[in-house]
Structures are given as structure tokens and as C-alpha cells.
Specification:
Structural class: alpha/beta
CATH superfamily: Vaccinia Virus protein VP39
Strand content: 15-25%
Distance between the termini: 45 Å
Helix content: 40-55%
Radius of gyration: 18 Å
Number of helices: 9
CATH topology: Rossmann fold
CATH class: Alpha Beta
Length: 253
């Protein structure tokens, strides 16, 4: 497969920035993960890496009484999220900042680092190493990552993942990386199928339908929109080949 064109990315962000969240996940799964973090302070200091437009960050704000610093490198997403924080009256507790995950430039340490579907952008092993310097002793690193569930996926499944995440492995591959990282594994679990649909693919399909008239006379944009629309359909047909897994780690030192 070829690298996406600049026009594709324009359409991609037109779709994705209008969604409640930019990847699989939901409040129920976030609540389950937080419940698996014993001894988390009542008002934890939280860092959300790769927050997008803040869907999961708002869940963290609902589920904890902590202060949250949310980072993402895509400035339009952060601009949208900042406006949402003002609407909700959360600017005193949640801060949204444009920054590079690989070099967040944060002069602080945290009780909890959270990242949903984003750490793969810098590589899981480097991300674990980077987060170690941002966690307080006893702090938690909680993240989701895409994993293969079956061997030999068909080309229509394998090729999109190889383009976006060529290093994607199995759950056991991730656990082996974690074992070498110096963290203590608290647990892991697979996101429910509802976490793919309720706040992600169902709104995505609606957004694609809304944009079809806008791009009807633009063949390149229409083709990009059709390509994006294939993602939820692929999940309907082949979702048993891959999953998103929550991993919960603790830094004991």
C-alpha cells in the first residue's frame, strides 16, 4: 500500500476530529482499568499522552478527582479540546497542551500516566523507558495497544495495520516487552467490542455520511472518504483477528 496523500490526511482529520474519540475505548473500560490500580491517591496527578480531542481525558476527569495534563501533537485537536474544557468548566483541573509525546517537555512527575492507542507512535519499548522518568515511585502506567489475536490475517486486514503499525504484535509480545522494562505488571484485559462502536465506529459512519455531499465533486477526497469508511466494515468482518488490550503497569523502586 502507498503512503496516504496530503489530501487523504485533510479528509481524515475532517472525519476524526468530529468524533467523540479517535480510537477504540469507552468510559466503562477506563473505569475497569482505574479500579485495577490500588493505592492511587485520592487526587492523583495524571498525564494523558496522545489525548486527541480529549474523549478519554474527560472520562478520567469524571472518574477521578485528580489534576490532568493532556498532551497531543495535533494542534487543531488541542484547540478543539480547550474549547470543550471551557464549556464544561474544567480548565481549573484539566490542562490541554500541544506537545510531542516522545519529548513532552514536562518538568513534573505523575501518579498516573494514561495513554489510549498512542504509545505505538514512538514504539512501546521507548515509550516505557520515557514514562519511567515521568512517574513517581509507585506510580502507574496504563495504556492500550493494538494486538494480533490470530495468525495469518487476510491481506485486507494485514496491510492497513502494516502501513500504520508495522511492529504490531500479539499480547504475548507486549508482555515480553513489559517483562524486560523494569515495571511490575498489574494486569491486562481486552477492550469489549462495544468500546469499538459506541464512541468510535458508529459516530465515524455517521460522520462519513454527513461529509459525502461536501466531497461529492472531489474525486480524490471522495476516494479518501470511502477508504476511511472501510475501517468499521473491516472490523465487522474481521474483528476476531485483532483487538485492543489495556495494560496496567506499576513502577516499583
Amino acid at each position: 500500500m502507498q503512503e496516504p496523500s496530503p489530501r487523504f490526511w485533510e479528509v481524515f482529520f475532517d472525519v476524526y476530529e468530529g468524533l467523540p474519540r479517535q480510537g477504540p475505548g469507552d468510559r466503562a473500560n477506563a473505569e475497569r482499568a482505574l479500579a485495577m490500580c490500588p493505592d492511587l491517591p485520592m487526587q492523583p496527578d495524571i498525564l494523558d499522552l496522545g489525548c486527541g480531542t480529549g474523549g478519554q481525558t474527560l472520562h478520567l476527569a469524571e472518574l477521578t478527582a485528580g489534576k490532568i495534563l493532556a498532551l497531543d501533537s495535533h494542534e487543531p485537536s488541542i484547540t478543539r479540546f480547550k474549547a470543550r474544557l471551557v464549556e464544561l468548566g474544567l480548565t481549573g483541573r484539566v490542562q490541554a497542551v500541544t506537545a510531542d509525546m516522545a519529548d513532552p517537555g514536562v518538568d513534573a512527575t505523575f501518579d498516573l500516566i494514561w495513554s489510549e492507542g498512542a504509545l505505538y507512535n514512538i514504539g512501546i519499548a521507548p515509550a516505557l523507558d520515557m514514562c519511567r522518568g515521568l512517574l513517581r515511585p509507585g506510580g502507574y502506567l496504563v495504556f492500550t495497544d493494538a494486538v494480533w489475536c490470530r495468525d495469518n490475517p487476510p491481506p485486507e486486514v494485514r496491510e492497513p495495520f502494516e502501513l500504520d503499525y508495522p511492529a504490531m504484535g500479539s499480547i504475548e509480545d507486549l508482555l515480553e516487552t513489559i517483562r524486560k522494562s523494569g515495571y511490575s505488571l498489574i494486569g491486562h484485559f481486552t477492550l469489549s467490542d462495544e468500546a469499538w462502536w459506541n464512541d468510535f465506529y458508529t459516530p465515524m459512519e455517521k460522520r462519513v455520511r454527513e461529509l459525502q455531499p461536501k466531497y461529492a465533486h472531489d474525486p480524490e477526497a471522495s476516494s479518501a472518504l470511502a477508504e476511511i469508511a472501510r475501517e468499521p466494515e473491516m472490523h465487522r468482518q474481521y474483528g476476531d483477528y485483532y483487538a485492543y488490550e489495556f495494560f496496567l503497569l506499576r513502577l516499583l523502586r
